[in-house]
Specification:
Function: Removes the formyl group from the N-terminal Met of newly synthesized proteins. Requires at least a dipeptide for an efficient rate of reaction. N-terminal L-methionine is a prerequisite for activity but the enzyme has broad specificity at other positions.
Largest sheet: 5 strands, antiparallel
EC number: 3.5.1.88
Strand order of the largest sheet: 1-2-3-6-7
Keywords: Hydrolase, Iron, Metal-binding, Protein biosynthesis
Oligomer: single chain
Radius of gyration: 17 Å
Structural class: alpha+beta
Catalytic activity: N-terminal N-formyl-L-methionyl-[peptide] + H2O = N-terminal L-methionyl-[peptide] + formate
Shape: globular
Strand content: 25-35%
Enzyme class: hydrolase
Distance between the termini: 37 Å
């Protein structure tokens, strides 16, 4: 289904978004843009507009707060995402989840592939599906290829939680939400997740809610 914004050129759509001060509005599940493959970035925005858009994504991600944000989450169907994770978690969580701090970076036209067959399952949430979390089994190690905002090639392996972030955000650019990959028996509102499933791993949730881990 076409929406009014679909008929607006991408550069004009971005200019309209940036006309407002503060963080960009994040669209929620049900918006068509979240279910469409994004258009590869090939210069639709001039350098100045791209820089402004990237900065707006950064501000929006930090304000939410989140550890990643894809352009479709603010209604722009371009293959661009940003990630950043200061990883302010207890040591046992850091070790169990492989959660290491990640600097801010821009991913343009990213794609990932699994490295090996190992998978890891943890609770995961999404800024476009507010209020809920679910367990998602993802590749433990992935190879990411992309460009940065200056057009420099990226080719890097990610492990642990950073690999999860990369997969989550790249999935957004393919029209995939984390719920498509989730164990739905684990679906929990944030309050229930905090009350019952705050452990570093998803083992207790799997046993209590009746699903299997990889």
């Amino acid at each position: 289904m076409e929406t009014p914004s679909d008929r607006v050129p991408l550069a004009e759509r971005v200019e309209q978004l940036l006309a407002e001060e503060g963080p960009l509005p994040i669209v929620a599940a049900g918006h068509p843009v979240l279910r469409r493959p994004s258009v590869p970035y090939d210069g639709q925005l001039d350098d100045a507009l791209l820089a402004r858009f990237v900065q707006a994504l950064r501000v929006t991600m930090r304000t939410a707060p989140g550890v990643g944000l894809a352009a479709p989450q603010v209604g722009v169907g371009l293959r661009i995402a940003v990630i950043e994770d200061p990883a302010p978690v207890p040591e046992e969580v850091r070790v169990a989840r492989g959660r290491e701090p990640q600097p801010f970076r821009v991913l343009v036209n990213p794609a990932y592939e699994a490295v090996g067959t190992e998978r890891a399952a943890f609770f995961e949430g999404c800024l476009s599906v507010p209020g809920y979390q679910a367990v998602v089994a993802r590749h433990a190690v992935v190879r990411l290829t992309a460009q940065d905002e200056r057009g420099q090639a990226l080719d890097e392996e990610f492990t642990g939680w950073p690999a999860r972030i990369v997969q989550h955000e790249t999935d957004h650019l393919d029209g995939t939400l984390y719920l498509d990959r989730a164990e739905l028996r684990s679906l929990s509102c944030n309050a229930a997740a905090a009350r019952y499933w705050g452990q570093p791993t998803a083992g207790d949730a799997a046993r209590a809610l009746g699903f299997e881990l990889p």
